[in-house]
Design a protein that fits this description.
The protein is about 25% helix and about 25% strand. By secondary structure, the protein is of the alpha+beta class. A hairpin with a 5-residue loop joins strand 5 and strand 6. Helix 6 packs across helix 10 (about 220-230) and helix 11 runs antiparallel to helix 12 (about 310-320).
Length: about 575
């Protein structure tokens, strides 16, 4: 189901002025911010174009004559010249920045808001709530007052962003439109005034009224807006693309409907984009494939790469695997492949003389910034990890210098990570990184699958002395750890002698295990410098093997003597 975010910036012009000035020019009594307004000329008089929250609280509003506003505002009113071109440019830059959330972003028609089609993208942020909270938090950090809402249609999201009680509002999928003021329908002012004269102040009674007399009096726009609000009429948004982005677009004489046809076009688009990337000396990190349907709507497929890549075969393969997400509707009349993030990749010398394959040299290191650990597709488009997608190159140009695709990823790990993440999800492709902690459940964390590997035990000091940087921790060789830890540890019933004898038998999940061999204890004290409650905490760990040869990692809370070290209960923490 389609899900659309509407972001409303009601005081964008005055927020831009406040950001430029740094602090308000004057202060109101009590330390409140000064009222800021912008003015423009309308016929032979000057009127207010925009007002901030402080001015609105004093009764000022857009369209009010400036002389009247100055009489009401007194000496606390700061008047600035309106800059509609600057506001529009700022909104466009903001819309391009919002491409980090979804590939389909466009400013709405009132100039102080934008739409983001997050269909199929919200899971990258966990939930729709997390996505909206992150968006509003970042805008607020820039000094922009923002409201946002999510709904099934652009019209309903637009209305909820402006008229919902909460600044962040989410309508569940399939929810019916609530009763809203008629101003939420985005109708011309004269039509809204005419509806109020007829007694229609809310959308619910207006939607229940007979359509024919209303259309005869106000035109078809009223019926269209009501149907768009209810989702009965599809409302497309025209997405923006960065002006300097590398992209390729193909149009078709007849609309395409089949996956096979799309796959053929993808091969051509990937080759065109790959050639442009090679000329620019860059490798793609994130791509958007846009399907322009005959009904005016646009569907998008987004992929990301773990490493910069310009191999058209790899990129084409990754995009083709996402075709199952595309609904062609009545047909697709054009397809566009857009590089939304790329990193610089330098050339590698392959041979000194054309045709001399023996003169190949090992590829050098990647260009700085080509790998950003912690995200498969980092950057302004994607905060959290994106699903990957790469390419495969055509024939290399002859000559002493050529670009070797393998130099971008000598071991092919980036390609492997891309394909795995594309199939199972980028959040499921990671490696385990060690953390300096003796407590087992705190000693590991998830890391980017291609981030720096671990340093073998005993070489950490040498590497630190050589590079000046602290090396990653490693497990002591004489203290093996389980391949799998249980989170949380599971309680077991044991029979063991105190204070430090290993268990003779234990029962886990109603199954009794008799211990044949045991090793321990390995005592681990609590991290009192992190948590006050662990000042005296102790765990005694044992490696045990039952009669069938299975090995378990058990621990007892406490040292077997002092009650303040633990309650002497036993737990199963992992499997060896």
């Amino acid at each position: 189901m389609r899900r659309v975010v509407s972001v409303w910036l009601p005081t964008l012009p005055t927020d831009r002025i406040r950001r430029r000035s740094g602090v308000p020019p004057r202060g109101l009594p009590g330390g409140a911010a000064a009222a800021i307004v912008t003015a423009t000329r309308e016929d032979r008089r000057r009127v207010l174009a925009a007002v901030d929250a402080a001015a609105s609280a004093q009764g000022l509003y857009p369209g009010m004559p400036l002389a009247q506003a100055q009489a009401l505002g007194g000496g606390w009113l700061s008047v600035h010249e309106a800059d509609p071109q600057g506001d529009a440019a700022a909104m466009r830059r903001l819309a391009l920045w919002c491409l980090r959330y979804a590939p389909l972003v466009a400013p709405d028609r009132d100039g102080v808001g934008l739409w983001i089609d997050i269909t199929g993208c919200a899971h990258l942020w966990g939930t729709e709530t997390a996505l909206l909270n992150d968006l509003v938090r970042r805008l607020s950090g820039w000094g922009l007052h923002a409201r946002a809402a999510v709904a099934d249609t652009p019209a309903l999201a637009h209305a909820m962003a402006r008229f919902a009680a909460a600044p962040v509002h989410i309508l569940p999928p399939g929810a019916s439109p609530p009763d809203l003021p008629v101003a939420a329908l985005r109708l011309p002012a004269d039509i809204i005034e005419g509806l109020r004269l007829l007694g229609f102040d809310r959308t619910a009674p207006l939607a229940a009224a007979p359509r024919a007399p209303l259309v005869r009096r106000f035109g078809t726009i009223l019926a269209t807006r009501l149907d768009q609000l209810a989702g009965r009429v599809f409302e497309p948004i025209q997405p923006l693309a960065p002006e300097t982005a590398i992209q390729a677009r193909l149009t078709f004489v007849e609309p395409l409907l089949t996956a096979e046809a799309f796959a053929t076009v993808i091969v051509r688009l990937a080759g065109m984009v790959s050639t442009a990337l090679e000329r620019a000396g860059r490798g793609a990190r994130a791509l958007d494939l846009l399907f322009e349907r005959v009904d005016g709507s646009v569907q998008a497929v987004r992929i990301g790469m773990a490493l910069p890549n310009r191999d058209p075969r790899h990129l084409g393969r990754m995009l083709a695997e996402r075709l199952g997400q595309v609904d062609p509707g009545l047909g697709v009349e054009a397809m566009r492949l857009l590089v939304v993030r790329a990193n610089r990749v330098g050339p590698t010398q392959l041979c000194a003389v054309p045709g001399d394959d023996k003169a190949k040299v090992s590829p050098g290191p990647l260009a700085p910034g080509s790998l950003a650990p912690g995200s498969l597709a980092p950057g302004p488009l994607a905060p959290g990890p994106l699903a990957p997608g790469p390419l495969a190159p055509g024939p290399l140009a002859p000559g002493p210098l050529a670009l070797d695709p393998a130099s971008l990823d000598p071991l092919g790990l980036g390609t492997l990570v891309d394909r795995l993440a594309n199939r199972v999800g980028s959040d499921r492709v990671y490696r385990i990184e060690l953390v300096e902690s003796d407590v087992p459940e705190r000693s590991v964390r998830k890391a980017h699958p291609l981030s720096q590997g671990l340093v073998p035990h005993g070489l950490a000091a040498k590497k630190q002395a050589r590079t000046g940087r602290r090396a990653a921790p490693a497990w002591p060789a004489d203290l093996p750890r389980p391949v799998r830890l249980l989170d949380p540890p599971q309680a077991v019933e044991t029979l063991a002698a105190l204070p430090d004898s290993p268990p003779v038998m234990f029962t886990w999940r109603r199954v009794r295990h008799h211990v044949r061999r045991a090793d321990g204890p390995e005592r681990i004290a609590g991290e009192w410098w992190k948590r006050e409650g662990e000042r005296h905490a102790v765990r005694d760990y044992y490696r045990v093997e039952d009669e069938s040869g299975r090995r378990f990692w058990l621990f007892r809370k406490g040292n077997g003597n002092a009650g303040e070290t633990g309650d002497m209960r036993w737990f199963l923490h992992g499997f060896l």
